[in-house]
Amino acid sequence: MPIYTITTAAGTLDSATKADLAAEVTRIHSDVNHVPSTYVNVVFNELAPDNVYTDAKPTRPLIINGWVRSGHPDEETSRLVTEIAHAATQVTGIPPERVLVVIGNSPARFAIEGGRVLPEPGQEQAWLLEGA
Amino acid sequence: MPIYTITTAAGTLDSATKADLAAEVTRIHSDVNHVPSTYVNVVFNELAPDNVYTDAKPTRPLIINGWVRSGHPDEETSRLVTEIAHAATQVTGIPPERVLVVIGNSPARFAIEGGRVLPEPGQEQAWLLEGA
Amino acid sequence: MPIYTITTAAGTLDSATKADLAAEVTRIHSDVNHVPSTYVNVVFNELAPDNVYTDAKPTRPLIINGWVRSGHPDEETSRLVTEIAHAATQVTGIPPERVLVVIGNSPARFAIEGGRVLPEPGQEQAWLLEGA
């Protein structure tokens, strides 16, 4: 259900590092938000170096945007961003100063997967069984 | 007012299919959310195949992210995602298992188009007349 | 903390214009939302011309998506989008009819930068000092 978009200047991450980071984000999300890893999507948006600015100067940040269904406890989502940011530095070697993680949220009813509107947080098991 | 971003691995959709999908998303959004089709934007973000992961493995999903103003009835937004997901499969042939639709929302006052802050849901007619 | 993603059809903006627009967005955000400019990120997502549609037809809009922490006064965020849209037209020459600005929001606790969860709006000074 979740989608993570990781934005970098092209050349910041090599292929193996992207695969490793996708694996870590998937593992953490699945663990913290109680979602099977088969539902976790991670995409990399690699932009031309002159298309990425911080403080109006070209830079090379690692920007991770995620989305979760509204209704997860706030503490869980804070833990999610903290673990993902930490893993991003571990996997990529990019220092915390250049790593941003932002999670957006909207109601489960505003999303669909496998042809079915998503369940509220806490209702995943019934939803998964129903679709099996 | 709305913006739909459709993310795929490059090569998933050909040009004609993209145009058809843009037309269907535009038609459905205009119908369900009572917005003239001239306000509906659809962009395709085509990524390198090794930049798209599900369950930490390279995949070829069709990910549709939309945005609407807060305040539409929840049932309407659920209908919106359901119709868009259904149309996506019809137009592209991609099975529902690989189609995700997620609609984000924020207040109308947080958006501007044609130089004017957007109207609350239900106030579109007055806003459109005022700008004519 | 904020991230602005500016989406265009490739060729809409040249390099100097992109740098100027990044500088203006950075200046305005820093001013309106009381955030040091060093925290403002602007990225450009340039898509193939046949990947950008308005009203189901290929077009060349300037779409600016931002993100702020929930809790800023609504009037401030309306001022933010208004000033950014105005500056976009000034810098790029693209008329207001083709400029869209949409700001999403989620709780400060759903975001991390420099290894630390973001402060609530109004708590920036303490947070910045703590990290210094």
UniProtKB/TrEMBL annotation, chains A, B, C:
Protein name: Phenylpyruvate tautomerase PptA, 4-oxalocrotonate tautomerase family
Annotated source species: Mycolicibacterium rutilum (Mycobacterium rutilum)
Pfam families for this protein: Tautomerase_3
Superkingdom in the source lineage: Bacteria
Keyword Magnesium (UniProt): no
Keywords for the protein's UniProt record, in alphabetical order: Pyruvate
Family matches, as InterPro entries: Cis-CaaD-like, Tautomerase/MIF_sf
Domain Tautomerase cis-CaaD-like: 1-127
Stored SUPFAM superfamilies: Tautomerase/MIF
Keyword Cytoplasm annotated: no
